[in-house]
Amino acid sequence: MRAAAGADGPQTVRLDVWLWSARLMPTRSAATAACRGGHVRRNGDPVKAAQKVVVGDELRVRSPGRERVVIITRILTTRVGAPIAREAYEDHSPVPPPQLAAAPPRRERGTGRPTKRERRQFDRLRGRDSTRGPESDPDAEH
Length: 142
What we know:
With 142 residues, this protein is of the alpha+beta class. Helix content is 25%, strand content 18%.
């Protein structure tokens, strides 16, 4: 199998290629941009997209609302199916907070703007207290 390196295959591969191959990033250019933006760390250090990764490296990949922590167990050189990709790393990611997993409340299409009562209910649901005005805030500057 050419896509997954065995004992006689390559021992290293570019970081952006591995992230794309293991399906942690949707495209190779997205993997490169994440590395350039400082969202990927290898063994605790920021890395460039062209740096080589080997089996045993720990990668921390930040994406919106989540951080993935994976340890490379297999070198991939081309994109593979999802079941094979999951075997290429051990996932040690923390469980995402429950409020991020829940879908935000939605209104029916065509119902117009929310009323004051509905807006206050949405604010309470989101953990914001809309009943307090700026005059009741002790930290507000006048």
